[in-house]
Design brief:
mainly alpha; 3 helices; flat
């Protein structure tokens, strides 16, 4: 069946999101939680690209690019805040 690679990859990405969410919830320090949140955002972008490839829809790729850009900017703000510089 043609969907088998997409289903297997989606399951693997879902498992990775679960592990990253455990790091976000249990992370001993704030930087650990920030890195976990960044990993979740990266996996979400990869999932959007996977969905776009599976359904042959280009809109998912556009949304993934915008989401990746916003995620990167949010990560920069979190890093600056954790450094002590404030906003």
């Amino acid at each position: 069946m043609i969907w088998d690679p997409f289903i297997i990859t989606a399951i693997a990405l879902f498992i990775c999101i679960i592990f990253a969410l455990v790091r976000v919830l249990r992370g001993p320090t704030a930087p650990d939680r920030a890195v976990g949140a960044d990993i979740v955002n990266t996996i979400v972008v990869a999932s959007m690209l996977l969905i776009g490839a599976a359904f042959n829809e280009i809109i998912y790729v556009d949304v993934a690019i915008v989401y990746a850009l916003l995620s990167f900017i949010a990560t920069l703000f979190i890093a600056k805040y954790l450094e002590g510089g404030g906003f």
